[in-house]
Amino acid sequence: MEPIGRARAPTAGLALLALISPARAIIWLLAGSFLWCLTMVIYNVLNAGLAAQFTPAQLMGRVGATRRTLTTGVVPIGSLTGGLLGDLVGIPAAVTTWIIMNAIGATLATTTPSPAPPPQPTNSRVRLGAAPHAARLRPGRSVRHR
């Protein structure tokens, strides 16, 4: 399993402590939310780096726009759904639903295997993300465009 998946599961699992200890529920929910946001920032930075590493330069704009649309485009939908659920069944039931969904997410994050990482190049002179001509340059020399 990927390390970030192992980090997301306990942070999502903190919300479960709100069910076990209702007197301290707000503390567990706030701690879980804070750690979840922190984990997601780290995950997004790492994921953007991988996308940049494996995406051809001419597709970077499209891939970046698609990633942002898919990842941030669902936030308003989730907010509206949570608000409607809170209006329909009440705030305690909506928060309990959120906690249960966190438990399902934590379970999936800890039990779903990650795909194998892509193969790395074997040539030690070629660095990932470097321009093809970078391996031929000597320190202090610039690239001339022809």
Could you walk me through the main structural features you see in this protein, from its secondary elements to its overall organization?
It is a single chain. The protein has 6 helices and no strands. By secondary structure, it is mostly helical. Helix 1 packs antiparallel against helix 6. 8% of the residues are buried.
User: How is the main sheet built?
Assistant: none
Distance between termini? 47 Å
Unreliable stretches (pLDDT < 50, length at least 5) are 133-137
Secondary-structure element order, N to C: HHHHHH
The multimeric state of the shown protein is: single chain
Structural classification: mainly alpha
Strand elements, count:
0
Number of helices: 6
Mean pLDDT: 75
Strand content: under 5%
- Tell the overall outline: globular
The radius of gyration computed from the alpha-carbon positions, rounded to a whole number of angstroms, is: 22 Å
Helix content: 55-70%
List keywords for this structure.
6 helices, mainly alpha, 146 residues
Topology record:
Elements: H1 3-13, H2 17-20, H3 25-54, H4 60-72, H5 74-89, H6 91-111
Helix pairs in contact: 1-3, 1-6, 5-6
